[in-house]
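Class prep. Write one:
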Amino acid sequence: MKRSEIFFNAVLVPIDYVLILSSALLAYYLRFHPLISEIRPVLFSIDFTLYFKATLIIAPFVVLIFALEGLYSMETTRPKLKEAYKIFTASSTALLILVIIFFLNRDFFSSRFIIISAWLFTVISTSFARILIKQIQAFLAARYGLGMHRVLLVGKNKISQAILSRFRDNPGLGYRVVKNVADFTWENLQSIKERRGIDEIVQCDPELLKSKVNMLIRFSDIFKIDYKYIPNLFESHAININIRQITGFPLIELKKTPLDGWGRVIKKVFDIMFSLAFIAIFSPLYLLIAFLIKIDSPGPIIYRDYRCGYRKKKFKFYKFRSLDYQFCDGELGTEEGNKLLKKLEKDKRNNTRRNTPLHKIKNDPRVTRVGRFLRKYSLDELPQFFNVLKGDMSVVGYRPHMSYEVDKFNYDQKRMFYIHPGITGLAQISGRSDLNFEEEVRLDVYYMENWSLFMDIAIILKTPFVLFKRRKVN
């Protein structure tokens, strides 16, 4: 850890304290300002001296909550959105505790306006302050090399090239690759350190000989250099483990996903609450789309078919109909529709995913006028919120596939079925149908192995921006 990084992390504590205190004082000032008091008459009196003394005590308490939430950890590459989420969570936790305290002693404090305003100002001010500090830190690293980590990459492969490109294109991250070597000796390492300096060694080759790995570890120990490595296939699957004992022996279980136990409960509750709110808010849009489909072409408004979901179990899947009814495919489609689909799948010019288990028909002649618009903005997917309420799907996950497509999947492509399919997902916000199938599977498996509620919220927030980007309609 560089001194500059320690400084920038340490300085956050007094800055947060000042901002929390300032937020509380600003809330007090606004509550008794004539413009506010005319709209909401003041029904109580709070002595400023007493209020100021209380905030001097409460501010360190909020800073403590921030610390418990990990906001002062020395992690230098935490995304801005995750930082803001942690601030929101910590501030909300402090707010809840204070509300309970004030409820138990109503004589001390009873202004909801001041409490809510102080919370809001704290979230906004501390979030912006951290963004500003990180921008300053990134500028100093890129412009003057302050706090720059000198990195030695060991192993020349796709991993090292990706890391090299990432650091080269983003100097503000604070990393500079001094050399990328495929093989080395002790003398090589010493020479590189003396000529260019090494702060970190990153082993990018998971299959490096054990003797070479031991040399790297010993070298980093002697010269006080940070040593990191990219895990091999087994270790990368061991990120979710459960350890228990059987007759005194440790038994390690490799869990497929964090979505187990309480993780599953949390996701389920979130799915139900979000779906109910979404359907209630956008119910007029549902009715408008149903009306447009009905006047555009004959047939049912909702397209129903079977899809494979959790543990490859079939469930009835809902979409707004975007095809001419006579050409609908699938197990619940028409015979004519399935014949036409097979013909289109064999067409090299129109099926853009011909060499994968999936199909993607370009210039699909079956799509209706309204259907083209619905597909362009993925509005045909909206009825799937009812699938979420039924428990067949989740708001975030992999896209559900037809049974005959799943039958063609290989082992890696079937790993995603340990969780429920979703309306949106990591693959959808990373390129939608423009991704090739292997990239889509890789993102879906990554989501399964690294799930968190924060990731779900981030994907949901990004989805609308992706939907309204220009997209070719098939």
Remarks:
- Residues 262-467 form one domain.
